[in-house]
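Fold this complex.
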Amino acid sequence: MSADEDVYRRQGFGASVGMGARPGLLVIDFTNGFADPAGFGGGNIAAAIARTQTLLAFARARRWPVAHSRIVFQGDGADANPFSRKIPGMLILTEDNPASHFVPALQPAAGELVVRKTVPSAFFGTALAPWLMQCGVDTLVVAGCTTSGCVRASVVDAMSAGLRVIVAADCVGDRATGPHEASLFDMQQKYADVMPFEAIRQLAEARSAEG
Amino acid sequence: MSADEDVYRRQGFGASVGMGARPGLLVIDFTNGFADPAGFGGGNIAAAIARTQTLLAFARARRWPVAHSRIVFQGDGADANPFSRKIPGMLILTEDNPASHFVPALQPAAGELVVRKTVPSAFFGTALAPWLMQCGVDTLVVAGCTTSGCVRASVVDAMSAGLRVIVAADCVGDRATGPHEASLFDMQQKYADVMPFEAIRQLAEARSAEG
Amino acid sequence: MSADEDVYRRQGFGASVGMGARPGLLVIDFTNGFADPAGFGGGNIAAAIARTQTLLAFARARRWPVAHSRIVFQGDGADANPFSRKIPGMLILTEDNPASHFVPALQPAAGELVVRKTVPSAFFGTALAPWLMQCGVDTLVVAGCTTSGCVRASVVDAMSAGLRVIVAADCVGDRATGPHEASLFDMQQKYADVMPFEAIRQLAEARSAEG
Amino acid sequence: MSADEDVYRRQGFGASVGMGARPGLLVIDFTNGFADPAGFGGGNIAAAIARTQTLLAFARARRWPVAHSRIVFQGDGADANPFSRKIPGMLILTEDNPASHFVPALQPAAGELVVRKTVPSAFFGTALAPWLMQCGVDTLVVAGCTTSGCVRASVVDAMSAGLRVIVAADCVGDRATGPHEASLFDMQQKYADVMPFEAIRQLAEARSAEG
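Structure:
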């Protein structure tokens, strides 16, 4: 994408947002159904789940506010919507279906917010933005799946909600490589800083040393 | 992207949303600043603006509700935000700067909604969704720029707001080809029906004939 | 309040919004905890619940889209918020506590939307507005409790979301008379048409006869 | 309202939210049209405007983020909505009409946010919540008019957005006494701390002394 990148550089895209004083973590849709290549998973999602365990442990150790999202539809189909019209299989993700439950390695802990949703963004129609406001979060680190779907939609909304956003590049995954790479590129140019967990760790530790 | 496409097909993505009984049109950010390759424009944006003139005339002839969005920041920088932090040049788009004004060929007509925004989506923090609700719109046809930026963000929100979305493939443009193509692919798989204006015209006329 | 009313009349408040072609029904927070005078109930709430049974049966018979809201907080207190800080007892309304469950006489039926919330409005941070958009609802009839709390907040948001709102005066209740009456007055002047169920029934039947 | 108050006390309403570390100020709709008793004004609005000058000076001296809202409709009537259907005279409040401009004594200063709206709440369909998020505000002090209309609706939304809210009792006004008093009562019981400016000043100074 070097010719493309050149256009963005000339037009002044891709500046850094940096990390503020109060980071939080959002883990998006790492549920059994998205971990399963025969369900909605595949690609590098398993690797992202593995790496997110380290990120989540780091966030908890530093007492960052942590939120998780999952897709849940009503069992009677009452809340089927244009999103499920586009991807009909999504409607199996009901409260009782293990496919809608978080993977065992990334269960929410007490004190962490869980939001249910029926659309891509973890912010749209949920209490996530208000919760981050009351927690005083100024920078949202994002992990989850899929990069080109619910991650990207949530990143756009997090930025629009007034937050600096840092995408943990090795903690987000997608079922297909092309969309994964294309969305990382777009997010870095327009919405967020994109970097691997190790760089986020260093940034957070440098900030604490300053403070 | 054929290997990628195969994954999506196997997992049941990409069903059609179709056109409902009451379409509306949203024209996103076709302003001078985005028409100018030396500003935020370039790529196939000029071609998309040209084609949108035909689409807009068609929508008006059929009395579809029509809305337009533009990016406008305060002149004193008070509403600079994480989006403008990522793309600092955006802050020049103030009320009085011609770069923030609609291109001459696509001026809003009386009775059409205009929303100002400081983020990618034309829905986020605006009165657009309420206006479409009161107009009774059930299907939103989308034109504008950029495909991978404000168009895509608005398409995700339109769908999340309960609307069927049809992206007019030849009426959306981007400064770079890679992101344009990648977002058309993602939108077709997950959020909207993507088709050229000619197909939208035929669909609308077929629906009227039925009705 | 006749002197007050006079001011509103002189300034042109209190026009009628009327009923559109596609009404829907919203039943707000008629749960055991709000039915119980020793909980959050009392006043005329029991009478409103009784009357709402007739309204709900009417709405179902006419196949109006029906939605219900309930307050639900997480069991670990993670989503305690400024609302629960103001009314700490609200935090007992967890998923498993019968106080958060709908009263037996007003259980949701299959195909009806249920939204959980942690704030007064049934629209704020929920999928209610998108659902009404996709159902094509243009007029929202509102029942529930409390008149001066969650009903009023939801009425303001319903109107702001682009809907005509009709408050079923004998199907809304409050723990105290003063706030109940004051909110009915304000809503009639500024946000909604306020009338008893019997008038709503006649309006709906007249509309059908026309259609 | 002593019998009413007793019910609220028994049910545990009316706890204090207190002031956090980072207050902000919202001034709602103090425009010429609402200052004019022959327009939408009257009652104690003039007194509230006078008192808000002191509050605003105090907020600026302490470098609190300050936001202002005004109602503005399009000149062509395109964004007439259910609110203007209820109060048709509201549609005169167009960009060019002095009635929609802020009163001379309370002009926004550079660096202060101004939001336009067509509904009661200054949060609904505006960039206000994101701006407060990025400013790190945790407590919103509220002034403006009318107490039972746009102030109350904004207070409910501010609380729902995750903020502690303090209503400056002598800096909010209404065209009629009954609704003014009833809304102060409801807000104190359920949504916010209600106190005169002098108490807010003491609270803010005490907090600074602590810090």
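The radius of gyration of chain C is 17 Å.
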